[in-house]
UniProtKB/TrEMBL annotation:
Protein name: PORR domain-containing protein
Highest taxon, organism lineage: Eukaryota
Matches recorded under Pfam families: PORR (PF11955)
UniProt domain PORR: residue ranges: 38-367
GO terms assigned for molecular function: RNA binding
InterPro entries in the cross-refs: PORR_domain, PORR_fam
Length: 407
């Protein structure tokens, strides 16, 4: 259900007693308790990407090695850290086409061992990945500017940005290749990797200072000719209910003016409803900027200082369960944007997801070739069995003919 004007009107408080209950919850946001409920379709969206993410981790591990090669037994020792449940050799057999195996020596006089290196097909994919990054360079710049523009001092730890590059689709080398190209927007302070490096915003671009919600309201106003107020979409899955007093609190909270995540909120009290409105706006914008419209909550927590999140910020996602969903899939809490999904599938895909599409094609090609090799092997075995059967029949015929002659 969406919170339309009609629905908001229908939820208005009818009497003084109910108003008293509302005022109690208005006084303390932390008093609002909303039970968590599983959403299988959104959980499945995370499960669907599990295998692709696992393959990406292994590829990244090999590519980060000197010369982009690594002995197979070295990679096997890292299996737990890579969260791999099967042996590396089994993984390579299950995902052909990613790597080549060859024999070489770790040291000049040591015995040859099996090494792993990227396949030619994987190298072609990496070249295609570079092209996609180039084609979407302006999108990457706008994302990076927006992350800085939402922060309280327009400065974010460079090391933290590196930690979330996968969530937002930044290339591995964005600090050394992308940032220096746009000195009108960015200034890198310190050396990345030393824990004291920061990325600072140099220029404020008003075009970037519009949230997804504000852009949506502007577009709706343009199409209808009626001024539309920026507002969150509130939608719960079928069968999900929240308590009456919480609905009443949400109704009143939804009527508060929308606060842009790019607005200065230094004057707001951390425990106020207005600050809650702003925080929800920031989380909504962060998830909207992410590739999959979802981010693990521990990763969001790393930016508490930069974005003024409270220690109990994760409660926002369950308190506003019509806007967000907290998935517990894969043993980690992940905040997801409900409106971004329909039946567990993304409605609007980030242009950078073309990289994932190409990677899935690479995996699919390897699987098809493996299936074709297995088919040919089965046919050869069947053909050999037929030949053996024919040979045995010929032997039996010769034996029978000899016995008849002897009689």
């Amino acid at each position: 259900m969406y919170f339309s004007n009609h629905l908001i009107h229908s939820l208005r408080i009818k009497n003084q007693k109910t108003h008293g209950i509302f005022m109690q919850f208005k006084a303390s946001i932390s008093s609002l308790k909303v039970a968590w409920r599983k959403d299988p379709k959104l959980d499945q969206a995370i499960e669907n990407d599990k295998k692709c993410n696992q393959c990406s981790r292994i590829v990244k591990e090999v590519l980060n090695e000197p010369g982009q090669v690594i002995p197979l037994h070295y990679l096997e020792k890292r299996r737990d850290r890579l969260r791999l449940t099967v042996k590396i050799k089994t993984f390579l057999d299950l995902n052909p086409g990613l790597f080549d195996l060859y024999m070489d020596r770790v040291r000049p006089k040591s015995e040859p061992v099996t090494f792993v290196r990227p396949s030619e097909r994987l190298r072609q994919f990496l070249e295609e990945e570079k092209r996609i990054f180039v084609d979407n360079e302006f999108l990457l710049v706008s994302k990076l500017c927006k992350l800085l523009m939402m922060s309280k001092d327009k400065v974010v730890s460079a090391d933290k940005l590196v930690q979330v590059k996968r969530e937002f689709g930044f290339p591995n080398d964005f600090l050394v290749n992308l940032v220096p190209k746009y000195q009108e927007y960015f200034k890198l302070i310190g050396e990345p990797g030393e824990g004291r490096s920061f990325l600072q915003l140099v220029k404020w671009n008003p075009e970037f200072a519009k949230s997804v919600i504000e852009v949506r309201a502007e577009e709706e106003s343009r199409l209808t000719g009626i001024r539309t107020r920026p507002a969150f979409n509130w939608k719960l899955p079928p069968g999900f209910f929240i308590r009456k007093e919480v609905r009443e609190w949400i109704r009143d909270w939804m009527e508060l003016p929308y606060i842009s995540p790019y607005a200065d909120v230094s004057h707001l009290d951390q425990s106020s409803r207005e600050m809650e409105k702003r925080n929800v706006g920031v989380f909504h914008e962060l998830l909207s900027l992410s590739l999959y419209k979802r981010i693990p909550i521990p990763i969001l927590g790393k930016f508490s200082d930069e974005y003024r999140f409270s220690n109990a910020f994760s409660n926002v996602f369950t308190r506003h369960s019509g806007i967000f969903y907290t998935s517990l899939k894969c043993g980690i809490k992940t905040a997801m944007l409900r409106e971004a999904y329909k039946d567990g599938e993304l409605i609007e895909r980030d242009p950078l997801l073309e990289i994932k599409d190409e990677f899935l094609k690479l995996l699919a090609e390897g699987h098809r070739e493996k299936a074709e090799r297995l088919r040919l092997q089965r046919e050869m075995v069947q053909e050999d069995m037929k030949m053996m059967a024919l040979s045995n029949n010929d032997l039996d015929y010769d034996k029978c003919e000899k016995e008849l002659l002897e009689e």
